[in-house]
Amino acid sequence: MARRCFHASSAKRGGLQGLALLAAAAAAMAPAAQAIPRLDLSGYPAPAPGLQRWVIQPSGLLPKSPDALISRNPLDWRVQLIVGQEVAKDCNLKRLSGPGLSLRRLPQASGKALFELKGPVVVMSTRKACTPDQTSGRSFLALGKQPFLVPYNASWPIVVDLPKGTELRWRIWKAETRQQDAVKL
Question: How many structural domains comprise the chain?
């Protein structure tokens, strides 16, 4: 399954040339049998000061699930946007605090949308004294409790502007084909 999420600042440095190199690198990483939709960011405004741009280009050809209960129709799929930060693990409980993602429609970009997270994202932690043997690597903390889902559309990139120091991860959600009856009260 070819999934692409990249940071757009590398393309910003080289302008169109950097964007072309980024698209060529994505094409080189993809298997030959998969078509890669053209990455078109025209109509998107530049990120606000203090924000970094992240772009997800969903693949148009995802492997079909062998499970008959999972929908094979992309209209039933969603992309979960996971905003977070990598932190050092220790004996303390940690979580991220900050505003949620907001959606901004862009009429100059043919109905496309820009997702933004404005405001600081802060790591909140308990303050226990940890022994040296209690520190063990790094962990990804996700912001928020509820999943932020957007419709799956291989034709349009998902563009997200986040505060510096945060990162974007994503995953696909697929619906079941089975519909169940609700109880009428």
Answer: 1
